[in-house]
Amino acid sequence: MSSKPEHIIRLEDLEGLQPPKEILLSNSEQELVIACAAGEKLAQKRVYELFSGKMLNICRRYAKDSEQARDLMHDGFIKVFLNIGKFKGQASLQTWITRIMINNSISAIRKEVRRGIKVNLEDVQLPETDQEQFELGEAEKLTAKDVFEKVNELPLGYRTVFSMYVLDGFSHREIADELDISEGTSKSQLAKAKKLLVKKLRGEV
Amino acid sequence: MNQDWRNIEDFVREKLGLLDGDSQPDWLAFERKLAKALWRRRLRRATGLAGLLVLLGFSQMLISGDWRQPSEEQDLPAVGVLKRAYKAEPQKMRTTAYSLASEEMKSLSSARENSPNTVEVSNKQLGSNTISANTPVVQGQTSNLSATKTVNTQEAFDESTAELLAFEFFEPLAISKPSLEEALATIKKAEPVRPFLDSDLNRQRIRAEDVGYSVARDQPYISPLQEKKPWTYSLNIYPNFAFREFRIDRRKRALLHSDFIDAMQNAERSGLNMNVGFEVSRRVGAITYINTGIEYINNSYRAEFDFLNFRNANFDANTGEIINYSIRKDPQQIAFSNINSFHFLNIPFSVSYQPWATDHIRINLEFGFSALYFLKAQGSTIDYRTLETIDLNDRPYRKFMASSSLTIGLQYYVSSNMNIGIEPTMMYFTNSIYTEEYPFEVIPYSMGVNFKLQMKLQ
Asked: Residue B375 belongs to a domain with what CATH number?
C-alpha cells in the first residue's frame, strides 16, 4: 500500500497541463473569485464561511494552540483575498486556499519547529518506517475528532513533519527544503511521530 | 493479515478525511484584520509612489542642476557675516531690527510731513551726492533727507546693527554686496514685513529706482518659488481627511428604520480621500495663477454599525415606506464593519495667489470650483430601511456633483521642482451624489486637510 496520498492535487503538478478553467472551477466558484477580486465584501464573507472550518483544522495541525491556529488562518485568508486576483483556476479554489494556508503556517512556525527538531538531533536516526504496521486495537473505534486531537498532542516538530508528509503530501525532500533540515532528519522525525502517535491512540501515554 | 494491524498513515488519513470543520463565526473579527491589511497595502503603494516621485524629482534636479548650490552663498562674505550673526542670536537681532526699523520709519514720516513737497527723485540725482542739509524738497530735485538721516543713523547705530538691518529687510540687496552706506540708505525706505500684493508692483518699482544702487532691479523681488513661467504642469498626489455631517430628512422619515437612526448618524461621517491628479497652471499676474487639470479621487470611509434591532418593520407594498413595526421577541444584535469607497473623476478650476514666499516655503491662497463625475461605489453597508446587508452599488447615485472650495496652503520645497504641503480646505457642495430616495440630508459643507506632494513637470 502506498503511503503517499493520491487525492491531493498540488499546484506545481498542474502547471504545464493547463486544464480548462471550467473543469476544476465551478461556475459559482468562478463568480466568487471574480467578486472577491473586485473587493466585494459579501463574496469574501461567503468564501470565508465556506472554507474557514477546514482551514482552521489545517492550521491547527501546525500551530502551537488554538489561538495561534486562528491567527494563522486569518493571516492565510488575508493572503488569499489580497492575491485572489492572481488565482488562475488551474486547481480548485479549495486546493489553492489550502496550499496558501499550509505555506503560511509553515513559514510562521518554521523557526520554532527547527528549534524543536535540533534538540532531538543527537538521537540516532531511525530507518524509514512507512510500511510498518501497527496494532491499533481499540483505537480503531476512535472518532475523527479524537484522532485529530491525538495528532495535535504530538510535539510541534513531530506533528509538523507528520502533517506535511502524511496529510499534506510533501515528500521528505520538500520537507527538508521547507524546514531547512536534512532528509534524514525528516524521516527520523516522521518515524518517531508515528510511534508516539500509535502509543497515544492506544492510550499508552 | 490481522484486521487490527493497520498502517498508521492510512489510518490517520482515513479518519481525518472524514473531519469537516465547522464554519467559523468570527467573520467580523477577520474583516477588521482584512481591512487593516488592505489599508496597509494601500499605504505601502502610496508610499512607494511618493518615494518614486521624490526620487524622480531629485534625479531631475541633479540632471538639470537648477538647485541653488551652497557655494554661491559662501562666495559672498557680507552675507556670511550677517547670517552667522543672525543664527547666533536670531530673536534678539530680529527684535532689535524691527524696533530700529520702526523708529526709523517714524522719524522718516515725520520728516516727510514737515517737508513742503513730495519726494520724487531720479537715480542720477540720488547718486550725485550734491545734497545740502535742510533744503526744502522740490519736484525733480534731490532731497537732503537721505544724507541727513544717513549721518544720524551712522552715529546712532553701530556697524553690526546696520548690517543686521540690511540683512533683515534687504537680504536680496545684501546678496548683491551693498556697502554699509548703501544698506543704510536703503533702510530709510524700509517698511515692516507684510504680504506682497500685486498692487505693490508699481510702488516697488519706483522705490528700486529711487534707491539708485547699481544693484537696483527693474522688477520687484519674487521668490524663486513664485512661479515665473507662463505655463507649468505638475503631478499632485495627496490624501485628504474630510469631515461631513448627515442629518435625517424629516420628510423621508418613513424610509428609515427606527432602530437604525442613531447607528447611521455615527457611522458614515468622516473619511479619507486619496487624490491623484495632473495640474496645469497659467500665470496671470506676478503672483497670481489660474489652475485646472484632472484628478482621480478615491473617497474611503468606514461603515461601522453595532446596534440592537428591537422590531421588525412592516412595509407598504406600493411605496416601500415603513407603515409600522412589530416588536421582536428576541432583539437581534446587528454588528457590521466595512471599509467602503466611492470613486470620482474631478475637474477643478481655481485661482491661486501666492502672497508670501521664502527660498523654501511658500504660502498659497486658492479659491475654486470643481465638477466631480461619479465613477463607482465599492463595498457594502446596512440598508437603512430593511436592516439587511446590501452592496453599495444597489443604491442609486447621481452622476455629477459640483463644489466650491477655499484653501490655505503652506508648501515646503524639497527641491525647485518638488514640494510637500499642508492645506486646510473648506468645501461647499451644491449637491450630493445621493438621490431623492436617500433619507438623510447631507450638510453641504466639508472641512478637510490635504497633505500634498506636488512635482512640477516643467
From this structure: 2.40.160.20
